[in-house]
Amino acid sequence: MTRPRILIVGGGAGGLELATRLGNKLGRHTKAHITLVDRNHTHIWKPLLHEVATGTLDIEIDQLSYRAHAAAHGFDFQLGRFDGLNRQQQKVILAPVFADDGEEVLAARELDYDYLVLAIGSVSNHFNTPGVAEHCIFLDSPAQAQRFHRHLLDAYLKLNSPRHPKETLNIAIVGAGATGVELAAELYHAAAELNLYGFADLRKARLNISVIEAGPRILPALPERIAIAAQKELEKLGVKVRTNTKVTAANSTGLQLGSEQLDAELMVWAAGIKAPDFLHHLDGLENNRINQLLVNSKLQTTQDSRIYAIGDCAGCPLSDNKWVPPRAQSAHQMASSVADNILAELNGKSLREFTYKDHGSLISLSRFGTVGSLMGNLVGGAMMIEGRIARLAYISLYRMHQVALHGWLKMLVISLVARINRIVRPRLKLH
C-alpha cells in the first residue's frame, strides 16, 4: 500500500510544528511520507527577529537546523523556494537553488502530494509607498534582521568615532505594532550593553529613535490601556512616538511625512503585513485583499479540500467579521488543528472545525518591562498584567514553541544552556 504524501511548504512556527507532530505520529512509523519545504536552511521563531536585528540574540546559537530536526522527528526536508502549483496533477514546483557565485546547486523540482499544507507566512506591506522598497529594511525574515544588524553595527562604529560629523544616530521605525514597539525598546537595551564593549561614547542621549504610526495610537490591535502603558514606557526611554502621521515617501536620507522631511540613517518599515504576491489567484485558489488564501472552518482552502493553509498566509474569517490575527499563537493553534484533521482523515474519521482561542497579547519592552493581557477569550482582554509576571508570561510563549518542537525535557535543557551562555558568552552579537 502506498503511503500518503503530506507536503508542508513553509517552516515557520506553524509549518515546523505541524511537520514535527506528523513526523512523530506518522513518519516515524512509516504510515505516511512527510516532507517540509523551506527556502532557508534554519528556523528562528519570528517574534524574536527584532532581537536578532539589534544583536541581543545571536541567531547562530538560537537557530534550528531543519535537516537535523527532520532526521530526529521522522520527516524529510527539502531546501527550495515555492515556484508554482498544479492542483490537477497534485504537484508543487520548486525553483532552482543557486550558490552565492551563481552556480546552480539544485535544479528545479516537482514534488507530488496527497495533502498539501501552505504555511508560507507573510511579508511586509509597504502599500506601494514611493521609495520604501529601496530605502527601508523589513523585519520579515532572518536575512532582513541580519541586514539591519550589520547596518546598525556600522552606524555604531561611526557614532563612536571622534571624526563622525553627527552627534546622534537617527533611527526611524514606521509602524507602531508589536514589531515596531519591541524593536524601539530593544535598540536602547543594545546601546546600553555596547558600553561594556568599548563603545564608551554611545550614550542613551545620542540615540534618536522615532516611531511613526498612521493611526491614532500605538499597538492598534491591542486594548487601549495596554497601548497607553507601552507608550509611557517608550517615552521614558526617549523614544519619540508620533501618531496620526503618514509616511508619503522614503529617500536615501530619511522619510517624507507630507511636507516634512524626517532625517534618518536607518529606516525600518513595520507598518503592516500581507501574504506573498505569488499566492494571489494561485491556480484558482481564492484570496482576500492582502493575498491570504481563503479557508473554510476546517482550514481547507475553499476551492480544494486537499490543500490546507495555516498561519499568516491563511485568511480565516471569524464570526465578528474579522480575521484570525497573524500571530504566533494563531499559527500554533492552526497547526494543531490541521494535524488532528489530517490524522482523522487518514483514519476515516470526520474533521473538526477550527476555533481560534485568544489567549491574550504581550508586548516586550526588552529589560525595561513587559505589558499585556492574558486569557482574552475568558475575560475580554480585561486582565492586564505587567512587570515581572508579564515578562515571565512572554518568555513562556517561546518556551511553549520549543516544547512543541522538542518536548519538555529537551526544552528544559535548551533553557539551561541559554542561561549558561548568558554567563560565558558576550551579551551582544558584536560581528
From TrEMBL:
Per the record, a Pfam family? Pyr_redox_2
What SUPFAM superfamilies does the record tag this protein with? FAD/NAD(P)-binding domain (SSF51905)
Q: Does the keyword Glycoprotein apply?
A: no
The alphabetized UniProt keywords are: FAD, Flavoprotein, Oxidoreductase
Family matches, as InterPro entries: FAD/NAD-bd_sf, FAD/NAD-binding_dom, NADH-Q_oxidoreductase
Q: Which cofactor does it need?
A: FAD
Q: Does the keyword Oxidoreductase apply?
A: yes
- Describe the location of the FAD/NAD(P)-binding domain by residue ranges: 5-335
Q: Which PANTHER family match?
A: 64 KDA MITOCHONDRIAL NADH DEHYDROGENASE (EUROFUNG), APOPTOSIS-INDUCING FACTOR 1
Would you identify the family this protein belongs to, as annotated? Belongs to the NADH dehydrogenase family.
Designated name of the protein: NAD(P)/FAD-dependent oxidoreductase
> Lineage, please?
Bacteria, Pseudomonadati, Pseudomonadota, Gammaproteobacteria, Chromatiales
